[in-house]
Amino acid sequence: MSQYDAIVIGAGHNGLTNAAYLAKAGLNVVVIEKNDYIGGAAVTRELYEGWKYSNCSYVCSMMRQALHRDLNLSRHGLILVPYLGTINFGDGDERLFSYHDEQAAYLELKRHSPHDADAMNRFQADLTRYSQFIRKTLLRTPPEPTSFRPRDIMEFLFLAKQLWRLGEREIYEYIRFFTMSAADFLDDYFENDLIKAAMASPGIIGTALGVYSPGSSYILLHHVMGDVDGNIGAWGLARGGMGAISSALANALQEYGGEILTNSGVEKIIVDGRKATGVVLDNGDQISARIVVSNLDAKRTFTQIIDREDLPDSIYERASNFKIRGSSGKVNIALSGLPKFTHVPENRYINRGGQGFTGSMETMERAYDCWKRGNWSDDPFVESVIPSAWDPTVAPPGQHWMSNFVQYCPPTLADGCWTPEKRDAFGEAVIKKIERYSPDFRDLILHMEVRTPHEIEEEIGLTEGNIFQGELTIDQLFFNRPFPGYGQYRMPVENLYMCGSSTHPGGGVSAACGANAAREILLDLKCRNTVPKDDFYDE
Fold first, then answer.
1. Whether 226 contacts 62, CB under 8 Å
2. How far apart are CA 197 and CA 188, in angstroms?
3. Which residues, including other chains, have CB under 8 Å from residue 238's CB and lie 6 or more apart?
4. How far apart are CA 4 and CA 80, in angstroms?
5. Is 413 helix (H, G, I), strand (E, B) or coil?
């Protein structure tokens, strides 16, 4: 039986981050991964010869720069490049182009609505102010609201100080913001439907909410509070695909002496006397450790790989009721050439951004209505990116790879389970949506990979294919994530921790969950001089 200081279950980016920090502190660490590759949802795979798909997560918007520097990921080959321009397509012939140049962006908005062009600065200033407050919590452990420990009291005082800096009026608006729908929030600023649809799209990505659902305004904020290369709110792409992030983290881990075991699924976490002591692998092998860290989601951790009798009475029920509804699909396409879109100029700047097949606010809400009935929409919301327009490593010369993220796609269907035929029909609906704006698109297709929540769950291990490992609603945020009383990464079994996106601050390729959990583990082990810190972190 192998013996380690720490076992980390799951080689997704948070698990690798957690393990890298533990190994950096001198612990003997092993990461256990059920697949024959690492990265979880942040992965690059060659599923068609010559093309490298980021076949799950496709964009980097929340990677914490402090962790990037701390683990020296640039030395391990990680290069993140910001988006350039983007296009949003309306239901008809309307197109909205976005630019980083302030004057060009203003004139484009003014073409659609002079009122909205003037309102955009106010919208961005308010959103930035809200995001700055949240950003300061990303690499901090949430305080326990029922605790009187000095550290928790000091953390509440820190948060109160940051909140007070917003000002009295802004505090009221900020509290209101958390309960609003994205549509209601945007109505305070804009009048043009296409502009509102373009701004609302981050509020529905990856979540089982519609643009008119209360709480979706926070999802919008969640997607714009990261930064790429110092550009706050920017989205970016990793050279070599999203697997480059996981590869850099794995290299950092191995540089510090950590190990990675692939093809090693975990059947069970061993609990002896209310203490986690190791794991049993699918092949029957046992590995022992002082601590066990789960990078799996909360539902999978507490309802599948721990015996129910080893848990406190309430935890199994809480995990069973944890909201983790899948709503997203993914279609990856190898193309023989760069698509041409109607009413879009030949502009390399625009092609290096994304394409948002948003339609109108009503179109996005109707797609959500289909999801609620257990169907996918024939008119889905599709967020597309063509990384090969700037990254020559992901497709052969002159050819391209297109990533298409789709809302909404149900984990189970009203007429039964997913089948290969239904999966292909879902992929066809996506192609037809793109064809509406690029008539020759189908002729460029060389290969397609279609992923519904069923495929995402089966391969990656994300319950119901939920990319955030649990919905980001207000009842599942901050010290309530994953469960009230367990928001500080320590779980109800002694020596058991969680480090995945089911913990604060939630989903997205940020590495924050893994780093935060590592800090708490190292503090418990009295390794205070090696805890990860953010620029804002002040013990």
1. yes
2. 14
3. 54, 60, 78, 79, 80, 81, 244, 245
4. 34
5. strand
Which residue type does 348 have?
Answer: R
- Give the CA angle between residues 39, 411, 500 to the nearest 5°: 35
User: For 145, phi and psi rounded to 5 degrees?
Assistant: -65, -20
**Tokens standing for 397?**
């010369």
Name residue, tokens 């049993």.
280
Find, among 445, 439, 491, 446, the residue nearest to 276 by Cα: 491
In this predicted model, what pLDDT tens digit does every residue of 477-533 receive, in sequence order? 999 999 999 999 999 999 999 999 999 999 888 899 999 999 999 999 987 555 565
Q: How far apart are CA 399 and CA 401, in angstroms?
A: 7
The three-state secondary structure class of 475 is helix
CA gap 97, 519 in Å, rounded: 42
Q: List Cβ neighbours of 213 (8 Å cut-off, separation of 6 or more).
A: 181, 368
Residue 300 makes CB contacts below 8 A (sequence gap 6+) with 461, 463
DSSP state of 180: S
The answer to whether the predicted template modeling score (pTM) of the entire model surpasses 0.85 is yes
- Which domains, from first to last, does the chain contain? 2-40+242-323+469-530 (3.50.50.60)
> What's the CA gap between 147 and 149, in Å, rounded?
6
